[in-house]
Write a structure and sequence with these properties.
The protein is α+β, with helices and mostly antiparallel strands. The chain contains eight helices and seven strands, in the order βαββαβααααααβββ. The protein has helices spanning 10-14, 52-57, 70-85, 88-104, 110-136, 142-187, 192-196, 200-209, and strands spanning 3-5, 32-39, 45-51, 68-69, 213-217, 221-225, 231-233. The relative contact order is 0.16. The model is unreliable at 1-14 (pLDDT under 50).
């Protein structure tokens, strides 16, 4: 089959609901992106997930992962995940595991540490103003002021990085807890038939909440990881 163009107009590509957009990872480690090819013969559209590294570097890339037919991998992943979604306890325990893993990335009282870093940043700001006042009063030279301000700036920058990291970890835990509760509430008691009626966009949102990641593996299978642990899904 001859494909007329590698990259159709953006409007046409986005018309499709890519269930695994942003969730596919190539076996080489790079993210996989979406690609639609149009047949020159009949104008039919063919949808794929392709390695972004291979797409960008072309012949210079040593990645051997072939493009993955979107309809095949999406069918395989949904077949696996939908069977697990009817078990609320499985969802709860999986999300709790992710929450504990996120909390385990930091040992200590993050709330208290955040307050301590905030106090230090405020203190360094006060000292900066004091140094500037001393220089204005002739109590230190410009060179001395510059050296002390440089020390303060370095310490302040490091403290702000730590504060942002603490807040990010706390935010990720809160988001996981919110997604856990939303999943349990929305999927509780839902029949398998109702699950199959979900749109591609709704499935994608569920995958995101489960922190799903899909990777092609040998023999035409896919490794699915996230809140539901790691499974090998057969090809579609």
């Amino acid at each position: 089959m001859v494909l007329a163009e590698r990259r159709p107009p953006e409007r046409k590509r986005l018309a499709r609901r890519w269930e695994l957009r942003g969730l596919m990872r190539c076996s080489c480690g790079w993210k996989m992106t979406t690609h639609t090819a149009i047949s020159k013969g009949n104008g039919a559209a063919y949808h794929y997930y392709v390695c972004k590294r291979r797409q960008e570097r072309r012949q210079e890339c040593d990645c051997t992962q072939r493009s993955v037919r979107a309809v095949e991998v999406e069918r395989a992943v949904w077949g696996l995940v939908s069977d697990l979604l009817v078990d609320p306890e499985r969802i709860r325990s999986g999300m709790e595991r992710l929450i504990e893993q996120e909390r385990a990335t930091h040992v200590g009282d993050s709330e208290r540490e955040a307050e301590a870093w905030a106090r230090k940043i405020a203190e360094w700001h006060r000292r900066r103003c004091a140094y500037q006042d001393q220089q204005a009063a002739g109590l230190m030279t410009l060179e001395e002021l510059g050296a002390r301000l440089k020390e303060l700036e370095s310490a302040r920058t490091s403290a702000e990085r730590e504060l942002v990291a603490l807040k990010d970890r706390r935010r990720r835990v809160e988001e996981l807890e919110e997604d856990r509760d939303a999943l349990l509430e929305s999927l509780a008691g839902m029949l398998p038939e109702a699950l199959d009626d979900l749109t591609g966009e709704e499935r994608c949102r569920i995958y995101q909440m489960l922190r799903l990641e899909v990777m092609p593996v040998p023999q035409g299978r896919y490794e699915v990881s996230g809140a539901l642990c790691t499974f090998a899904a057969p090809s579609g």
